[in-house]
Amino acid sequence: MTTSETPTREAAREEAPARTDTPTRGYTATKDQLQTRLRRIEGQVRGIERMVDDDRYCIDVLTQISAIQAALDKVALGLLDGHVRHCVAEGAEEGKSDVMSTELMAAVGRLMRRG
User: Fold this and answer.
1) Where are the domains of the chain?
2) Of 52, 69, 53, 70, nearest to 61 (Cα)?
3) In the CATH hierarchy, which top-level class contains the domain 28-112?
4) Where is the composition biased (Polar residues) (predicted)?
5) Which of 12, 43, 77, 87 stands 20 to 30 A from 96 (CA)?
6) What angle do CA 94, 12, 105 make, to 5 degrees?
7) Tell me: the pLDDT tens digits for 22-65?
8) Residue 91 and residue 6: Cα distance in Å, rounded?
9) CA-to-CA dists, residue 12 to 27, 68, 83, angstroms
């Protein structure tokens, strides 16, 4: 399959029946926890900004950046878990397992690419 033939998220949506209600996502059941975790990460980022404003030691700033990256990785893994258990499973029931698997692996690939 070439890159131009790779199914996209848009293609997966086009194949799905139109819904008028709010869709259930893989993270819907834990949305409050997810939002709390993201707000905490947001606060950590603001903390780094203050550290730079205060001319803190480089290694201390880098340590905080590392902590934020770890927290974001944990959020990403949780989202991937929910996506597999809900969205991919639902897609398989609807006969879209190839499209969903391709989309999942592309997302995993993006998460793994780090400088």
Assistant:
1) 28-112
2) 52
3) mainly alpha
4) 21-34
5) 77
6) 95
7) 778 878 778 899 999 999 999 999 999 999 999 999 999 999 99
8) 16
9) 19, 32, 14
Ramachandran quadrant class, 55 (left: phi over 0; alpha: psi -120 to 50; beta: rest): left
The two tokens of residue 72 are 């974001």
Task: Return mean pLDDT, the chain.
Answer: 84
Confidence of residue 17 (pLDDT cuts 50, 70, 90): low
The separation between CA 85 and the C-alpha centre of its own chain, rounded to angstroms, equals 14
Mean pLDDT for 93-114 is 90
- Helix H, strand E, coil C: the string for 15-69 is HCCCCCCCCCCCCHHHHHHHHHHHHHHHHHHHHHHHHHHCCCCHHHHHHHHHHHH
d(CA 43, CA 6): 38
pTM, two decimal places: 0.71
